[in-house]
User: What shape does this take?
Amino acid sequence: MHELSIARPLAKEIEEKIKGGNPRKIIIVVGEASGFDINFLRHSFEDHIFPEKKWQGAELIFEKEAPTLICPNCGKTIEEATQFACPDCGSNEIDIKSGNRVYVKEVICK
Ligand SMILES: [Zn+2]
Ligand SMILES: [Zn+2]
Assistant: This one.
C-alpha cells in the first residue's frame, strides 16, 4: 500500500504552518493504532513530497504515540490498550482517545 494519500494532507498541514517558509525540522506524530508504517511515510515524504515542494533539506522526525483508551461511561482513561473493558465500571464500550491518528506536531523553519 502506498502512503501518499496520508502524506498529502500532512504536507498541506505543513504548508499552512510554514506560510511559504522553508522547513528545517518536521515532527510528525504517528499513533501506534493508526496502522501507518513509519518507513512508508518516510518514503512518501522524502521521495515524493520533499522533491515536489523543494523541502529536501528538512529533517523528518517521527514520534510514536501509544494508544490511549477512554471509557465513555465513567470517563476513565485506560493506558493499557490490551484491556477491552473498563477496570472501574466494567463497561465494554471503550473509545480510542489518542494514538489512532497521524498529525503534524511541529514544524521548525529555517
Ligand atoms: Zn513511492
Ligand atoms: Zn468506566
Summary: The chain has two helices and six strands. Residues 2, 43, 47-48 surround zinc ion (ligand 1) (CB under 6 Å).
